[in-house]
Amino acid sequence: MSRGNASSRLVDELKIDKDCFVDEAWETDYVRQILSTCQRRGVRVLSIKKCDSRRKGVHYYVKIKPPIDANLANELQWLLGDDCLRVDVNRARIGSGCKEWNKLFEKVGARLRTIYSVRFGVRGRSRGS
Question: Which of 10, 23, 62, 87 has the highest count of CB atoms within 10 angstroms of its CB?
């Protein structure tokens, strides 16, 4: 593992591990929750992508602006429902200076699907619903 001052490295993508599958209406509400939570911290969401995890559930990749420090990124991931054990491991990695602290593992050949972008809004539903 690469070492350095991980907390001083800026992060422009949040990674969230959700160990369940939900229907489209719940996912639309979750996208709105991501947007709201990030906005309250002064962070703008540029896009949200998702893919199936290697074991169970879904991974979300949230592209943000401006970049934030690793500790705030890990806290936002926790607020957005990231797996609690993963949050603890990430906190230890950040504390030890590990540069590659924010890892997720997908199925081989998994494809990311955009479910939100600043340009198009929430996929699959109109913005007003």
Answer: 62
Q: What residues in the chain have per-residue pLDDT under 70?
A: 1-8, 123-129
Residue 41 lies in a domain: yes
The total domain count for the chain is 1
pLDDT of residue 128: 42
pLDDT one-digit tens code per residue, 65-96: 999 999 999 999 999 999 999 999 999 999 99
Kindly report the pTM of this predicted structure: 0.86
The answer as to whether 36 is a domain residue is yes
For residue 128, tell me if it sits in a domain.
no
SS (H, E, C) the chain: CCECCHHHCEEEEEEEEECCCCCHHHHHHHHHHHHHHHHHCCCEEEEEEEEEECCCCEEEEEEEEEEEEHHHHHHHHHHCCCCHHHHHHHHHHHHCCECCCCCCCECCCCCCEEEEECCCEECCCCCCC
- Residue 85, domain member (yes or no): yes
